[in-house]
Amino acid sequence: MKTLKYYLNKAYQGGWAIGQFNFSDFSELKAIVNAAAKLKSPIILGTSEGESGFFGLEEAVVMRDFLRKKTGLPIFLNLDHGKSLEYLKNAIDVGYDMVHFDGSKLPLEDLPASATQKALQAGNISISKKVVAYAKWRGVIVEGEVGRIGTDASRVYQEKFEIKEEYLTKPDEAIEYVKKTGVNLLAISIGTFHGIDAMGESPHIRLDRLKEIREKINIPLVLHGGSGTPENDIKESVKLGISKININTEIRKAFAQTLLQDLQKGEIVPYKFLPGAMEAVSKVVEDKISLFGSMNGV
């Protein structure tokens, strides 16, 4: 089977994007893979530190291997938003294909010790370099991040829903980060929001900022916060060079809402109440694969 790096470059060169779909239990996982098999699409399975802590790092690797063999699909596994160097190393050691180091809340460069901060504060670049060095000799690729994806703390309500300018990725910082760290792909903050806003607002992608970054960065770019983002924005971002898009909240929402409805009917047998939730997840994933243009991409 060809590597994840091959498929990311194929997406980058071909003007489409690979979807990363997060899971935390086997029902979600199976539903995601069923959708990919139906549309013959490569996929990345994502687990955050919390999700992998619940499911198990080694268990996730075993299930990836089993599902690869069963389906023949290019199925890859990524540790999403890893913040601990030791946890990232653990994921690399047990066999993850890829790890994402999220140093977005750190200063870009190391900060010297001060009266209040007795020890040097390691920056995003220096820790990322350690992750890249550790991953390289194990054949694992690394996703870095510059800028902060939208959160509750970064919202600004004006005439429309927007993310604060200060949280967006600055092109010059992205260039410096990529040159100094050697990451394989870069997650950027271009206006999207983790989750789906409670007020029902949909964040718009700052396509102008994406163009600026794309002109200066020649590695695959990643869009986080894909759930709830307007479809036209997604299509335009892919045309402009986004090669990987992360989806989590829409999967969780589809699974939980459908499961809750079925449980309220009084059914207590798991193999009878889980299929509906799985079908709902598969539908979300099928729609995203079609939107990203990765169908028949194996």
Any idea what the CATH architecture is? Alpha-Beta Barrel
Question: CATH topology, anyone?
Answer: TIM Barrel
CATH class: Alpha Beta
Poorly predicted regions: none
Order of helices and strands: HEHEHHEHEHEEEHEHEHEHH
Total tally of structural domains: 1
Helix coverage percent of residues? 40-55%
Tell me, briefly, the overall form.
globular
The average pLDDT value, as a whole number, equals 91
The value of Rg in angstroms is 19 Å
Number of extended strands = 10
Strand order of the largest sheet: 1-2-3-4-5-8-9-10
Determine the N-to-C terminus distance: 10 Å
Count, helices: 11
How would you name the CATH homologous superfamily?
Answer: Aldolase class I
Strand content: 15-25%
State the major sheet. Answer: 8 strands, parallel, barrel
Helix and strand composition category = alpha/beta
Describe this protein with a few key phrases.
single chain; about 300 residues; alpha/beta; TIM Barrel; eight-stranded parallel β-barrel; two-stranded antiparallel ribbon; about 45% helix
